[in-house]
Design brief:
Blueprint: E1 4-7, E2 10-13, E3 18-24, E4 33-39, E5 46-55, E6 58-63, E7 71-76, E8 81-86, E9 95-102, E10 117-118, E11 122-127
Length: 128
Amino acid sequence: QVQLVESGGGLVQAGGSLRLSCAASGRAFSSYVMGWFRQAPGKEREFVGRIRRNGGSTYSADYADSVKGRFTISRDNAKNTVYLQMNSLKPEDTAVYYCAADVTPGRIGVKPYEYDYWGQGTQVTVSS
């Protein structure tokens, strides 16, 4: 069982920045694919990005086109924490943001059903 707890959401003006954190339990955190998703009112949950291990101790991140160049995902395995740095925020980034863990070996997904564990979500509101 993996527990995920997000923090760092809030209200920010357009053009501003926020950093979300997601603290995870689990002794194998370094092997998990960690994803970020968001869900705006009336919309489906959508993929924001993920960070995965390439092999050894190196990691790489992938992003949705809508956030590429503005958002950055990183992780600190010593702290069992993954981060989502959000810059140049836009009103359309307003949503509840969720972190998720994919603990299934060999799977690297972008769909919500491909992730095994979820945090409770944190609200991000960007005002114009």
